[in-house]
Amino acid sequence: MVVNIDSRDGWLPLENLVKIKLSGCKNCVYVPMLGQLPHLRELKLVGMPNLKCIDTLFYYHSRHHSGTINETSVFLTALTTFKLSVMPNLEE
After folding, report:
1. Within a 10 A sphere around the Cβ of 35, how many other Cβ atoms?
2. Whole-number Cα distances in Å, 34 to 54, 67, 68
């Protein structure tokens, strides 16, 4: 997983992140695919009133070959803390 930033090469690798806190994301309607971060130990999602669902794209990564799914892997194996707070519309 990489994020486009304003730098020389334009991309920042995120594979080694161990903590993420997303807070006050009032317009956020979905959670990004954080399951691809193998070293993530702590994840806090706070103040996301428009978030309704944390779907399987958050947890899983599927590898596609020739239009078919060959393998689905579960990620977030290093996760020890997962906090959800102030999400009044979260349904699933």
Report:
1. 21
2. 11, 23, 23
